[in-house]
Task: inverse folding
């Protein structure tokens, strides 16, 4: 039972390069999320998905794109990386159990550095 | 708006003492709250949750208190252990915002042996 798995765990990019972060969950969760975590700040929601084929913007969506082609996978793309996107990225997933019940399970994080 | 903040960025306690971590939230429509623990180099882990129709919930060594009147949430850890050292986040969830979790900035808990 792997839970939520993120790949890669670490990556260094040059400004302007593109990359895709992969998140996979094996819990049959409907909801999936991408957060970024910066020093001294909480987790900020980038994009999220409420089901296969759907995506929506979170608090800080600019510079990122996402896709949810399969229920178990949620991809986060950076088309043209910028130093401001240096951060630790966390993927999470949750059931949609009904009103106000959305405990989320997190992956181990991806540390991205843009130079 | 959707904002959650914490009163204390760092809390140092002696091993064996009780810890209290506080959190203020601003969205009166939030109906579900969660505390997460994040150890160094790891993703956040669920500790305990509470719905807005409750004011107290207890787990193993942890208690969450919710005061909706002043929009305040606290996490109490009994007999704090070195393994409790971590960053603790409160998060709020509101149906009107699509059941998204909004996180606070976090509190560092340091346990002194």
Result:
């Amino acid at each position: 039972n792997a839970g939520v798995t993120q790949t890669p765990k670490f990556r260094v990019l040059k400004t302007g390069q593109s990359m895709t972060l992969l998140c996979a969950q094996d819990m049959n969760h409907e909801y999936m999320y991408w957060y970024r975590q910066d020093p001294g700040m909480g987790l900020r929601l980038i994009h999220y998905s409420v089901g296969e084929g759907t995506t929506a913007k979170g608090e800080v969506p600019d510079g990122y794109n996402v896709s949810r082609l399969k229920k178990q996978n949620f991809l986060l793309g950076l088309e043209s990386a910028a130093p401001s996107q240096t951060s630790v990225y966390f993927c999470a997933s949750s059931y949609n159990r009904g009103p106000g019940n959305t405990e989320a399970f997190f992956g181990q994080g991806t540390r991205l550095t843009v130079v | 708006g959707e904002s959650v903040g914490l009163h204390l960025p760092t809390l140092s306690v002696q091993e064996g003492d009780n810890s209290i971590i506080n959190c203020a939230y601003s969205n009166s429509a939030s109906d579900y709250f969660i505390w997460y623990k994040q150890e160094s180099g790891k993703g956040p882990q669920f500790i305990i949750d509470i719905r807005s129709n409750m004011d107290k919930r207890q787990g193993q060594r942890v208690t969450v208190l919710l005061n909706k009147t002043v929009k305040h949430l606290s996490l109490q850890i009994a007999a704090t252990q070195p393994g409790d050292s971590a960053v603790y986040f409160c998060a709020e969830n509101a149906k009107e915002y699509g059941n998204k979790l909004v996180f606070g900035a976090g509190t560092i808990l340091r346990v002194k042996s």
The first strand of chain B starts at residue 4 and ends at 5.
